[in-house]
Amino acid sequence: MMTLLIRTLIVLALSSFAVAQSVDTLWTVFPGQSHESETIYEALAMNDGSVVLAGGVMDPDSSRIINGAYKLSPDGATQWVNGFRGLGLGWFRAVTEGNDGTLVFAGQTRIPNQPGATKKYIVKLDQNGDSLWTSIIGADASADASEAIFPASGGGYWVFGQTTEGGQTQFHALKISEDGDSLDSKIYGREWSDYVWEAAQDVDGGFILVGDYWDPLVGNLQGLVMKLDANGDSLWGYYYGGPDDEDFFDVAVDPEGGYMLCGTIVPADDFIGDVFLMKISATGDSLWSRTIGGADDDAAYAIVPVYSGFAMICNTLSFGAGNVDGWLLRVNSAGDTLFSQTFGNSRWQFLWDIVQGGDLGYVFCGASNIAGAGNDGWVLKTTPDPTNIPPDPFELAEPADGAIINLQEVFPLTCTWHAARDLNMDQVTYLFHAELNGGTAFLQNPNGMLADTFYNLEIDVPLDRLDESSFIDWYVDATDGTDTVSTSSGTWQFRIDYASDVESPSALPNEVSLAAYPNPFNPAARVQFDLPQDGHVKLGIYDITGRLVEMLADELYSAGSHVLEFSGASLPSGTYFARITHHEETRITKLVLMK
Asked: What pTM value is reported for the model?
């Protein structure tokens, strides 16, 4: 059994509220609607926008709550509901997507004729809600409960909860196979009651568990955190507390390192709880804490990492329409409140979980007495979080960093980059930056922001040609109108070599060549061709069917390099081909017109 250390917690000042932003409710549904104590405890957002729910559902045959699994479509319509009787009364507290694309639910089922006795109840379903297997695990006389479930590395699943198998309530880590058979069981805790309420899977494959511990010597609750490796072995664990009651109901892995804990703190002198938010390091050291609340009881039950911070679902008696209301708290990475918002009416509402979907909207789940005739499961879907997310990192494309380009005349060179994705679906525009010879001249886009992912850079050849080459440093910024980011490639550099006079024999091309720039183009492109000797040239532009669009040249040309202008102003977007014939030699190059 592991020994846990006690750490004293210093509570920092109350965070101020900011209410400039909010989300709107897209839809609200009440799965089950039996008005008989149905509750949804956990939500799982799927890649297609649907939502899987774990909780309880009314059994029409026995008129009691049994373990319930639900799936809703992206618009909130019920796709399926499935109830599982187990040993009797029961409910699911957690759900995860299986290693094989299935759904695995974990909870507890009550043992008949044994008051307070439960066993862990785990069910595996396919995507249509049909049962593949069920597993009931636990001693007959104990109170076993499941609070969290995750896929295990190498196959199977880890189920976290508590057990009274040893006499006292203690943390319990249970590993099961892909078929639901028990593979490993580990119990952690001290001589008194330890409860695990939630867990999160860490980036290292391990797990972070949170809950509480009742210390009869002190006479209060202390927050409890434990870190396990991928095999379920304890790495460290701490109790956090002082004279007040503290309880952790959920934990999130912080993308910036460490963990964010949420729950409630009840001062010893007034017995009114507040939302409690605490940041700890990767080794369990307390870094800071925040209390958020009003004149009545408030508590946070779930937390998820979102862009630049966290979103918590809470329940409040201090704010809202009256009685208990659901309460969304959006904080930054330092725990400062960005905005808060309540959900509900004057009747009783209670929220248990929050997830963020791929559209950046939130899904809340819990229970509600909105209808006034008993509890129903309650699920809400919101509009996207209003916090702006900058465009994703993007990279430069061409010319490559370190490229060497030969130049003879005025030469519009096309610089290209990859598109930057914006999760808020805002339009992204770009600003092109370039410097000549280390800043002796700036070649920045004179037309402002670009909607395209290319820029045609025109460079004049020096008349005296004292310099044989020039260096261009370039990079691109992307903006969504609120935030601006630079390319993740940094600044790239390419070298331009100036060719000597074309009248010098050594400077003449040694073969026929054909090129077009910019490419893609809109509306005009320059077609450059090189000739190793004098002769007749036929140069035409053809569409993708082979039809001649325009004959650019049909005459004698001298040896050297030549440039002709081609306008596609009257043509539709598409692919075209330039073809040159000189002394029975033919060259073809492709042009793309993008309007």
From this structure: 0.75
